């Protein structure tokens, strides 16, 4: 049994048109933006046209499939929101592959009493911190966080959802009970160079890196760029620049070869060419496979920023918008996926994921497995993100047979 790659390709290309920017050729579907919600409505129409039931829960997660959800279900999926100037495969591959698996099962008249559903989770990319849709499904939200969460531009989650006709507090009712799920499967691009450089077809993921995200403020004094002497300035940008140079040292002293620290978004105020920056606002995202290491790295970042602030006569403040601990995938399900890959004759690597995925939250309530395909040159979160169609086909076929192996008719 094989998936229909042309059908999967057509759906991925059609979805990529939503939020597409002709200027930089990137995809813009931030969580709970107009484009994001347009994509969710499009997905529901596609699923309905294929004959599937569909619904959106209070967190904005879109579900599609067949079978009453009154017995343990097999759930497949990922997300369809994107980072600014993202690519066409990140997240979307897993959602469209889930739809393709359902259609392939129908093409081959696979009848099962087990509910088989797909999901497009909401706000996975962390615009508001965390992985909102998957956290809602896993019952990991609380009212205080839901009402206080905001993005780096100060937009509150509750307001962004209200603008789309959603009540953020309804997300608290979106939790699934463990007995409702048999397993969760996610297909994703690697978003790194390992599989591509080693010419391997499949990554069998056995664990997911933890992630913390900070929003940092360094506050100094805006001043005239021509009249303020260099040794009398409280230049917030110089504080940011000094921290950037300290990242390699922090990792060498406190991290591991799996540690990542990234300054991803920067805003300087007042932001005028002839004015010394009085404030630097930026994000820090740290990752590691060991939560104790994550804590060491976070502490080192805090101490370093405090010292830099004193050096440049700045005030240092930060807000931790999310802390996601590392999560192992289900060993039993990972072993089963590995056996399927071997049986199908694909070259593969059993590997960790340096990027966060919905799987890490779904793993708290069910058996959860994650499958990777290569990213060309390791590129992701960028317009030139690409995976070859033969790799897309391979990954979708692994997803198909991993789901089939979970059906009771096949002895599971």
From TrEMBL:
Note accompanying the cofactor annotation: Binds 2 Zn(2+) ions per subunit.
InterPro entries documented for this protein: Amidase_Cbmase, Bact_exopeptidase_dim_dom, Peptidase_M20
Alphabetic keyword roster: Hydrolase, Metal-binding, Zinc
GO molecular-function terms, A-Z: hydrolase activity, acting on carbon-nitrogen (but not peptide) bonds, in linear amidines; metal ion binding
Record bears the keyword Protein biosynthesis: no
Residues binding Zn(2+) 2: 90, 125, 381
Keyword Hydrolase carried by entry: yes
Cofactor(s) in the UniProt record: Zn(2+)
Gene3D superfamilies on file: 3.30.70.360, Zn peptidases
Binding site for Zn(2+) 1: 79, 90, 188
Cited Pfam families: Peptidase_M20 (PF01546)
Family that this chain belongs to: Belongs to the peptidase M20 family.
PANTHER family linked: ALLANTOATE AMIDOHYDROLASE (PTHR32494:SF5), ALLANTOATE DEIMINASE-RELATED (PTHR32494)
Protein name as annotated: Allantoate amidohydrolase
């Amino acid at each position: 049994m094989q998936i229909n790659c042309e059908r999967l390709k057509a759906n991925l290309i059609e979805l990529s048109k939503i939020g597409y920017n002709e200027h930089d050729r990137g995809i813009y579907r931030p969580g709970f933006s107009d484009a994001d919600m347009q994509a969710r409505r499009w997905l529901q129409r596609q699923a309905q046209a294929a004959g599937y039931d569909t619904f959106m829960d209070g967190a904005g997660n879109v579900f599609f499939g067949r079978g009453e959800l009154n017995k343990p279900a097999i759930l497949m999926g990922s997300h369809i929101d994107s980072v600014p100037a993202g690519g066409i495969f990140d997240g979307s591959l897993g959602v469209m592959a889930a739809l393709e698996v359902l259609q392939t099962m129908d093409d081959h008249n696979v009848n099962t009493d087990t509910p088989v559903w797909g999901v497009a989770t909401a706000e996975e990319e962390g615009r508001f911190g965390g992985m909102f849709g998957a956290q809602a499904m896993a019952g990991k939200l609380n009212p205080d966080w839901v009402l206080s969460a905001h993005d780096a531009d100060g937009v509150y989650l509750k307001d962004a959802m209200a603008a789309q006709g959603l009540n953020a507090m309804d997300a608290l009712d979106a939790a699934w009970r463990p007995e409702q799920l048999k397993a969760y499967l996610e297909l994703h691009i690697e978003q790194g160079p390992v599989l591509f450089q080693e010419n391997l077809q499949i990554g069998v993921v056995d664990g997911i890196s933890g992630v913390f995200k900070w929003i940092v403020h360094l506050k100094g004094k805006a001043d005239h760029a021509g009249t303020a002497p260099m040794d009398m300035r409280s230049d917030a940008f110089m504080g940011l620049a000094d921290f950037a140079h300290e990242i390699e040292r922090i990792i060498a002293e406190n991290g591991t070869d799996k540690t990542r620290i990234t300054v991803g978004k920067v805003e300087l105020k007042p932001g005028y060419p002839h004015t010394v920056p009085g404030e630097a606002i930026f994000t820090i995202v740290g990752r590691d496979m060991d939560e104790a290491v994550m804590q060491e790295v976070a502490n080192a970042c805090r101490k370093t920023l405090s010292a830099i602030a004193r050096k440049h006569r700045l005030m240092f403040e930060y807000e931790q918008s999310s802390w996601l601990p590392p999560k192992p995938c289900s060993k039993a399900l990972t072993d089963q996926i590995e056996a399927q890959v071997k049986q199908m004759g694909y070259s593969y690597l059993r590997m960790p994921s340096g990027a966060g995925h919905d799987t890490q939250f779904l793993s708290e309530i069910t058996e959860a497995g994650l499958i990777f395909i290569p990213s060309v040159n390791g590129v992701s979160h960028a317009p030139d993100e690409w995976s070859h169609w033969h790799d897309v086909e391979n990954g979708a076929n692994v997803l198909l047979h991993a789901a089939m192996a979970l059906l009771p008719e096949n002895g599971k």
